Amino acid sequence: MIADGAGEDEEKWLAAGAAAFKQNAFYMQRAIDSNNLKDALKYSAQMLSELRTSKLSPHKYYDLYMRAFDELRKLEIFFMEETRRGCSVIELYELVQHAGNILPRLYLLCTAGSVYIKTKEAPAKEILKDLVEMCRGIQHPLRGLFLRSYLAQISRDKLPDIGSEYEGDADTVTDAVEFVLLNFTEMNKLWVRMQHQGPARDKEKREKERSELRDLVGKNLHVLSQLEGVDLDMYRDTVLPRVLEQIVNCRDEIAQYYLMDCIIQVFPDEYHLQTLDVLLGACPQLQPSVDIMTVLSRLMERLSSYAALNTEVLPYFLQVEAFSKLNNAIGKVIEAQEDMPILSAVTLYSSLLKFTLHVHPDRLDYADQVLGSCIKQLSGKGKIHDTRATKELVTLLSAPLEKYNDVVIALKLTNYPLVLDYLDSENKRVMATVIIRSIMKNKTIIATAEKVEALLELIKGLINDLDEPQGLEVDEDDFEEEQNSVARLIHMLYSDDPEEMFKIISVLKNHFLTGGPKRLKFTIPPLVVSALKLIRRLPEEGDNPFGKEASVSATKIFQFLNQIIEALPSAPSPDLAFRLYLQCAEAANKCDEEPIAYEFFTQAYILYEEEISDSKAQVTALQLIIGTLQRMHVFGVENRDTLTHKAMGYSAKLLKKPDQCRAVYACSHLFWLEDHETIQDGERVLRCLKRALKIANSAQQMTSAARGSTGSVTLFIEILNKYLYFYEKGIPQVTVESVESMIQLIKNEESLTSDPSAESFFASTLRFMEFQKQKGGVVGDRYEQIKV
């Protein structure tokens, strides 16, 4: 046997034991080869004595045990051959009990007992009962566990199961179950006892060693699950109650967690479904430190998968009231474990919700009930700040969205927003983003104002500043991405009914205007677009029997638009408000609403004068004004002249001369519209072109004075192109002589040859004129008159 010297290394102990083991195994094999039973028993007992050591860790002891197991298989074959040669198996069974030490004696007894059962000279149940009782002689936890593991291993194919060769009148599956349960009970007791041996400082080491040995105990449950005779009735009446009794009574955290998980994993799902009340009844009786959250979560995952793979069993879930039993069990577990962390409680309800959504997708009341139970556990705890708990809560809230792919269904869950309220601001934004992504991914249309109101309550973390904690800094890129997602969401809020659609955009307005100024530049533009789309869908007044009295009219929507755009200059986003005013003016033009169009233009002009001060921004804004005004046909003479005059005035006041020149010649388009005879004033067109030419001359002179060289002629070429445009349109005031004089003026400029880009631009213009001549027709004839 291995010496118990205190200072020796474990590896040395194993090496010494293995060497002694190998030596005795050699002599045992030699005795077997010579059919010497006496010596075979002698050397096998000496070999097995090496397993009496207390100095090896479970991992090293297992190495030694496996060597013994291999040698004992050879010895078992030898015993079987001896019985065939005339040796009495009963005498053999008694002979092995003469070994000096109890541990080798019991290993040999189990080996001889295996042969005894094979010979069928006695009922298997009697031999098995004798063996399992005799093994009580080893009470050392480690040695006892491996001894009983050996007993379980050699007996598993000799149990009197249904269809087994060892089944008979005297041997039934009940005897097999009784044997396995008894062995399981004793092994669990030994396993638990390991926890209480040794000093407290080695507790972690002992727990690690126990974890390495847990499969030895669990194999018994696996053997039970493989017995053909263990049907539902036997499982419900015998196996499960006995196993649960042992689990509850052992009062050991590690054993209770592992064995509960074993039951769930090794026995059929059908059995779990039919015995839910028994299995769940044990959960509140477990130690408070047991990770019951994981156990129940795995049970619900197994049942969910079972339902998904076998849809025909779904009625049984309702029949056994699986949901109610699980819900009640979770409540009792949480009640029994007063110090259960919030994370565990939320995880349990998250698993229950997933189970409900998979097994009872049509029962929204069940899903809502789960959320209600979750609220009950969270009540009084305020906002959840535990990172893992909030993450799990987000998972719980995401489950209905992932299952139904339709946020409208989630809106029907009355407890959904109440659970959402327990998230802090950051996680509310995360959840809001998840909801919006679900809507966009599944192209879900929210078609009523009531549902839109409910949806906005769910995503208020993105659209409202009111509950933001002081000092919270949000990354600008993240903020922009979030607000852009809200902007995209607006286009999914749509109803074919104009009245309902107007209610929807009114709800959006009420929420957005209280959402803080920094959000408005993202949310107002798509809201304006939705309102403008609604205007285009309205029937013409002649087709609308209610006319101006209709509850939704273009006038009413334009008033709505004016109210929301007014909020933008304070954002501050005056340039955005300016553009939206012009868009609304153009929409009013299409509706023949002159006063409204004029009001929008007036507001745009006010913003231009008061808010837009940057010279580049002014140029861009003026281009938009001129372009929009050119497309307007609704204005009477007086209003159009007023707006045109102001645009001309703004053009003349631009900071840089080239910008002034371009703005002025662009204004020439305001006085000549081909489709409207009332807006065709050739004199004013020519006046604009001449004024632009005058400004271009002034710009060139200023450049010459500043640099000492003649300025670029590019402005002149641009003005020439305008002359050609209006000449081609047939404006009488733009004559051949005026075009020719512009060409001559450009040719006489000294700077033309020194500016390659201007020279190329002028050459392109001349080529265009030549091309127009070659086209022939009326246009060609007009260009033929120009002498270049």
From TrEMBL:
<dbReference type="GO" id="GO:0030906">
    <property type="term" value="C:retromer, cargo-selective complex"/>
</dbReference>
<keyword id="KW-0472">Membrane</keyword>
<comment type="similarity">
    <text>Belongs to the VPS35 family.</text>
</comment>
<protein>
    <recommendedName>
        <fullName>Vacuolar protein sorting-associated protein 35</fullName>
    </recommendedName>
</protein>
<keyword id="KW-0813">Transport</keyword>
<keyword id="KW-0967">Endosome</keyword>
<dbReference type="GO" id="GO:0005829">
    <property type="term" value="C:cytosol"/>
</dbReference>
<dbReference type="GO" id="GO:0042147">
    <property type="term" value="P:retrograde transport, endosome to Golgi"/>
</dbReference>
<dbReference type="GO" id="GO:0005770">
    <property type="term" value="C:late endosome"/>
</dbReference>
<keyword id="KW-0963">Cytoplasm</keyword>
<dbReference type="GO" id="GO:0006886">
    <property type="term" value="P:intracellular protein transport"/>
</dbReference>
<dbReference type="InterPro" id="IPR005378">
    <property type="entry name" value="Vps35"/>
</dbReference>
<keyword id="KW-0333">Golgi apparatus</keyword>
<dbReference type="GO" id="GO:0030904">
    <property type="term" value="C:retromer complex"/>
</dbReference>
<dbReference type="GO" id="GO:0005794">
    <property type="term" value="C:Golgi apparatus"/>
</dbReference>
<keyword id="KW-0653">Protein transport</keyword>
<dbReference type="InterPro" id="IPR042491">
    <property type="entry name" value="Vps35_C"/>
</dbReference>
<dbReference type="InterPro" id="IPR016024">
    <property type="entry name" value="ARM-type_fold"/>
</dbReference>
<comment type="function">
    <text>Plays a role in vesicular protein sorting.</text>
</comment>
<dbReference type="GO" id="GO:0010008">
    <property type="term" value="C:endosome membrane"/>
</dbReference>
<dbReference type="Pfam" id="PF03635">
    <property type="entry name" value="Vps35"/>
</dbReference>
